[in-house]
Amino acid sequence: MSSSRPDSLADPFATAPNTPLNTNETLEPPRASFLSPTPETVGSPRDSYAQAPENSSPLVPEVEKRNNENYEQGSTASSLPKKRLLIRRPLFWLIAFAILAVVVLAVVLPVYFVVIKPHNSNYNGTSGGGTSGGGSGSGNPAPPGVSTTGGNGSLITAVDGTKFTYLNSFGGIWVDNPNDPFNNDAYPNSWTPPLNASWTWGVNKINGVNLGGLFVLEPFITPALYQKYSGAVDEWTLSTLMAADTASGGLDQLETHYNTFITEQDIAEIAGAGLNWIRLPIPFWAIEKWDFEPFLEKVCWPYIIRVFQWARKYGIRVNLDLHTIPGSQNGYNHSGKLGSINFLNGVMGLANAQRALDYIRIITEFISQPEWVNVVPVFSIINEALVSTIGTDQMTTFYLLAHDTIRNITGYGEGHGPYIAIHDGFLGTAAWADFLQGSDRIILDTHPYFAFDGSSNGQPIATGTGLSAGGIWPQQACNAWGPGMNTSQTAFGVTIAGEFSDGYNQCGLYLMGVGNTDSYGDSCSLFLDSSQWNATMKAGYYEFTLASMDALQNWFFWTWKIGNSSTTNTVQSPAWSYQLGLQQGWIPTDPRAAVGTCAALGAAGPQFDGTYAAYQTGGPGAGTIVPSSVSSYSQYPPTPINGLTAGAIQSLLPTYTSTSAVPTLPPPTFSPSPSPSVSAGSGWFDSGDTGLAPTEVQGCTYPNAWDAVSSAMPTALCPSTAIATTVATPLTTVVTSLTTVATPLSSLTVKKRYQNDREA
């Protein structure tokens, strides 16, 4: 099904976000302590699907059951003399009870206050997201005979009937109660707080993986699909060719991929590998697509929800990554279409930015609901915008607008919606120092790769074992990435590596794009086939992995899984698969093994002490952006827009009108139905957000939204009767449509917002 919006692509620029809440209230960030990280027996995640004889690990050990049974059995009376024994005399019992009471007070109370009470506090604290989403685990008992929790060795039965054994030697537990589907009690390991407890930035560490290639199909991650369709180089061309292949099922093949590429077993194995987060790239067409776009719209959304629920079951937090943007934010094959950048760049740059902002708004509305806020604590709003083309000031202006739009929905301060992650745009972390000081919970995301640095990177990695393994690459990772990550934690705030890999060179099937045979030619043959790797090669990759993890501190490996090539039936980009590295021994089975690697290599420098400014984690001052940033970046749209022909008049740039119904993301349905007291939400958190969605102006003609850089500019407004209008925009910004003038809020009359007619 496709949008009813017209398929030719200028009308008043009108944004529809809310006027944010004004609050002077200062919020003290809640803090909670958790189980101290104790070394566990490191277990391999290999063969994690072995069958187990029982449905779940027993919650009470059998020996304890036997002891309890013996305790409950009455003793047989024996023949006793008529004379009363000492134990039958009242005075004896008075003395015995007094002694017993003293023992109980002396032993039980210290145990309670030292052990039990702190443990309960640790595992029943509220999270940064506020409530536990209607799933506290109380009040909704499980159906009879249904196991709702388990740990290492428990047998998991998936919805499709598949069974596998959950192997987790790190103390993690899963929780899955059909009567309480939003229960947040699970945790992946003993050192990670459960979903219903606070994540403390600077104390807790992200050890995560990306689920790349699941909902945004990249050639090197899902090569078989691209090998099937000659000429497919990105998801645009793949979708076009696939749709024409009705004999193979057309675009339904994509739904088959969504259903099978990542399964519940993968999420269980991620938890069992000592990991605690996933980064989930999704496309904007999970919400909708417009008529001129070939993508499969909306179909992946239920599968995205399914991943959320699997993550909840195993206690995994989700960094939700909007990986594609209308018009493309970087021109890469994973942005939707390979080619030019048409987001905030070129003739359709502003129009595409309108769509992008609305999709950010719609996703924020969904994940800010109490059912999801603890599972999705981070929202990466635009993946890898190419700032060198778009412009730093232009992107900063958009980020301020997006920040205010999001915080107007969620409210300000810790516990009010997700952290907002922005990418460094390949400028490096230092370029973003002091960014929007006073903003509310913005994370800087960087993607360090040696493979794409333009160098040949031919130095060997198979050089020895132990600290001598890996050649120059382990120390290179420590020196190139560690200092910048430590500095950015103070100069910017929370900083993460949303992507990194073991690929230090450009070798990998389709790694540099379909048709770029340099990355999968004869010179790369060794790196395409991990079955040829000897122990020294694997030791080199292992040491490089440890050094990378240690240097980056909070990281997501790209990616969990690489699909097989259809020609070899093997993974031909092995250095990019965390799962394969675990199975074959060049990825550590316990990520904590990485700590201290850089110091051991002599590459240690000043370390971040874990303390952030209060506003950076939603404490006092969050949302009070410094006046210099407001004055510099609050005027939207930004000027100039790059990618225009010489002499172009920016006031004539095509834009959309916000008069369309909003495609709200639907909540899940459950089978069997949970307890009547359980609410799945409506898909929309802020009932006061009634703005409409952008659509084309009827009767106006637009350039190609995905290929409008340096296109001819309109010579007149469309429609010709258009007049400048004023609209409400977040916090500090109000835009005058169809003009180059942006005027502060105080001097404009705000247009009354239309009542939103959201689609069910």
SSE inventory with pairings:
Blueprint: H1 62-72, H2 90-123, E1 149-150, E2 155-157, E3 163-165, E4 171-175, E5 187-189, E6 207-210, H3 223-228, H4 235-244, H5 252-260, H6 264-272, E7 277-282, H7 301-314, E8 317-322, H8 349-367, E9 378-380, H9 387-390, H10 392-410, E10 419-423, E11 442-446, H11 473-491, E12 495-500, H12 525-528, H13 535-552, E13 555-557, H14 578-584, H15 597-600, H16 627-633, E14 657-660, E15 693-695
Parallel strand pairs: 6-7, 6-13, 7-8, 8-9, 9-10, 10-11, 11-12, 12-13
Antiparallel strand pairs: 1-4, 2-3, 4-5, 14-15
Task: Describe the protein.
The protein is of the alpha/beta class. It has a domain of 250 residues: TIM Barrel (Alpha-Beta Barrel), CATH 3.20.20.80. It is 26% helix and 8% strand. The protein is built from 16 helices and 15 strands. An 8-stranded parallel barrel has the order 6-7-8-9-10-11-12-13. A 3-stranded antiparallel β-sheet has the order 1-4-5. Strands 2-3 form a two-stranded antiparallel ribbon. Helix 8 runs parallel beside helix 10. The chain is globular and about 70 Å long. 50% of the residues are buried. The N terminus and C terminus are likely disordered.
CATH superfamily of the domain at 207-446 and 608-617: Glycosidases
Give the amount of beta strand, in percent: 5-15%
Give the helix level as a range of percent: 25-40%
**Residue-averaged pLDDT, rounded?**
82
Radius of gyration: 29 Å
Count of individual beta strands: 15
**Which CATH architecture of the domain at 207-446 and 608-617 would you pick?**
Alpha-Beta Barrel
Distance between the termini: 15 Å
Oligomer: single chain
The order of strands across the largest sheet is 6-7-8-9-10-11-12-13
Q: Please report the first level of CATH classification, the CATH class of the domain at 207-446 and 608-617.
A: Alpha Beta
Shape: globular
Structure class: alpha/beta
Indicate the CATH topology of the domain at 207-446 and 608-617.
TIM Barrel
User: Sheet bearing the most strands, described?
Assistant: 8 strands, parallel, barrel
The residue ranges in which pLDDT falls below 50 over 5 or more consecutive positions are 1-90, 102-139, 724-760
Task: State the helix count.
Answer: 16
